[in-house]
Amino acid sequence: MSGVRRFVARRLLLGAAQTVAVVLLIFALTEALxxxxxxxxxxxxxxxxxxxxxxxxxxxxxxxxxxxxxxxxGLLHGDLGTSLTSGRPVARYLADGFGPTLVPAALTVALLVxxxxxxxxxxxxxxxxxxxxxxSSVTLxxxxxxxxxxxxxxxxxLALRLGWLPPTxxxxxxxxxxxxxxxxxxxxxxxxxxxxxxxxxxRAGMIDAxxxxxxxxxxxxxxxxxxxxxxHALPAALAPAAQQLARTVDWLLxxxxxxxxxxxxxxxxxxxxxAVAERDVPVVQGLAxxxxxxxxxxxxxxxxxxxxxxxxxxxxx
Amino acid sequence: xKNREWAEAKDEEPVxxxxxxxxxxxxxxxxxxxxxxxTVLVDGVNLTARPGRVTALVxxxxxGKTTTGLALLGTYPPGARVSGEVRxxxxxxxxxxxxxxxxxxxxxxxxxxxxxxxxxxxLGRLPRARRRAAVAREVRRALAEAQLPDADTVxxxxxHQLSGGQQQRVVLAQALLLxxxxxxxxxxxxxxxxxxxxxxxxxxxxxxxxxxxxxxxSHDLDVVRALADDLVVLRxxxxxxxxxxxxxxxxxxxxxxxxxxxxRAASDAPDPAPKTGPAALRVRxxxxxxxxxxxxxxxVLRVPELDLRAGECLAVLGRxxxGKTTLGRCLAGxxxxxxxxxxxxxxxLPRSLRDRDRSALAAVxxxxxxxxxxxxxxxxxxGQVARTAVRLRGVPxxxxxxxxxxxxxxxxxxxxxxHRRPGQLSGGELQRAALARALLxxxxxxxxxxxxxxxxxxxxxxxxxxxxxxxxxxxxxxxxLITHDLESLAPAHRIAVLDAGExxxxxxxxxxxxxxxxxxTSALLRTRDRLGAPSxx
Lengths: 317, 537
Fold this sequence. Notes:
The complex is a heterodimer of chains A (about 325) and B (about 525). Chain A has about 325 residues and is mainly α. Chain A contains 13 helices and no strands. Chain A has a domain at about 95-280: MetI-like (MetI-like fold, Orthogonal Bundle), CATH 1.10.3720.10. At the A-B interface, helix 9 and helix 10 of A face helix 3 of B. Chain B: GO terms for molecular function: ATP binding; ATP hydrolysis activity. Chain B: InterPro entries: AAA+_ATPase, ABC_transp_ATP-bind, ABC_transporter-like_ATP-bd, ABC_transporter-like_CS, Oligopep_ABC_C, P-loop_NTPase.
């Protein structure tokens, strides 16, 4: 399969270029923001002399391209630089934030796949009947509710009124697994919209596949209903769902800022939000690199899966 | 045409030659009527399929062949009201080979997937330990019987990695593996070249020789003639005549049967006078390449020299994959990757469509095989036809519409049809509209790429007649008729035979057909003679 290998190599090269472009763009945008780390650090005493001193200490007074070149050189040696505000290495920030992001993300995916596929297949099997109408309308309705609104609603009802679950993850630090009950609400909110989009995609794909002549042929030749559904119809319906799943995993791993902020989870999204507020450029760029690489790798994986499932479509770079 | 005469259906039991020795039928259709939303698709259809015999359902498109064939499979269109009786005597599933075998092969699964599942069903009784090996053995045997010797390679492939012929054989292998006693083959040769047709015919004959009852749905008279033991002639959902094939061929009783089975009716013969004068189009040293999956390029066509005079029809004849379409595409500027020159009235045409100016674009027009795909389904045909004159000749819209209507009616398309959307026109009517659209550019060269393949014989003759008339009426027009079909050569003055990208023979049509000089041409013509030999007379 040298064709596929060449495709992977080409996509990785392209992905590297895309990541570089993202990092450059992020650097330019943070430069364009009013204020810098020195202003943020000066805090309540915005005395120009003091800001100048901090600026000199942080070596922010050098021209932008020099600072960027320094950072990029470090990156080539695997050094993501140090935070401007705390002096800690950026790599530590990422390592600390990754755990709290990964745990809810992994749980969400673990529930998302069976729930999304199950609902989609169920709806497709009963196309046009009550089960399908129920699933289709509920998924549409839930999909229309943004994460923050659903989060606020769930916290108000389940945590504050009924007191069943803790409203936030405050006080649990980065070890969320110590008390799994704090994870229930965030995972529910993270799950809500992806499950709807996945179920609807699987439903559409399955309905197409079940109506196809090749499924009719398999049925005609006496194969059992389950065998036809799972071995012959489902593989043909998977390709778009796999792509959607990759986008969802990418979205989850990049730290869903709204959800992390709402439940006070110290994940990557929170790290990003704080870093932007403090104009902590090295941290922002470190995150941009990580998110860029994640996106490239996940989408490449999804394309390979799609290629396996719909080989006729070929591979496009 | 006198409909009064034809409306009278003359049913006759398909009686085998010697009723005493006739095997019991394995499938029977009695008085079938299928109605969808008030439209009667078939009415009063009777059909008997006997083991080892080929029963052919013939008729033009829309005559109810497919509806009847699918009824044998227990499949009806959605919302259909069905009455009558379909009885499958041998209790076993019915095999199905559709017109496009790829449609029943799952694009996401390897060829082995369904074959293995079918074999497993049949061997369900075996203990698990022995089943695996037995399943593999059965699948291999079925593939071998379907003339696919290289089982290991074929089983690992995805359907799109197989040729059309291989796909058809895989579908046949499914039916054989199933142990089907009846196989329904829907238009198995439509759109195939003569050599492929001969192979498909052999495959189906082999199927019948195994004692399987073959129900052939076709409007391809060559194959029907070569294979059918019994014939059922359908028209507008009714049986107009049925009986043993040799009787219907030699003495058709119904006028419609006579019209349908008419032997390559001498459609308007071309003006035999050889065209003289300077060539309108010259091709010099043409070599066309295709990119070969990024691995470099492959030469697919070499035409050292080819001339086309005004008023002349040049047929480019060859099998699929011989480079015919590439030649047409080079002329029209649709295939850029070629060297050599294409001169129109002595002036070289730019290689790509993008570099040709309006008059050069108008001068070479292209009519595609799939007329339905060549029209926007949401807009009326007339506007789309008129657009050519507006775009390429700068004619005002109302003049263009008038001209389009004249051209359409001139080609035999009623005015009411011209105002409809493509979905409401038949394949033959749309092909006429596509021709009209190309003619509105006032082209010097018209490239017709397989425009009659997939049409039933009556419609095909109509379109070929239109082409002959065009040549007579417009003396500045030259026609390039790309075809694999020996039946579509009627309008041709000259024939160029292509094989594997090389012009193996070129000359006056009559000479090439009567005394071919190249072995490949002889082989092509022989297949016609073999297929076309009237059976039983």
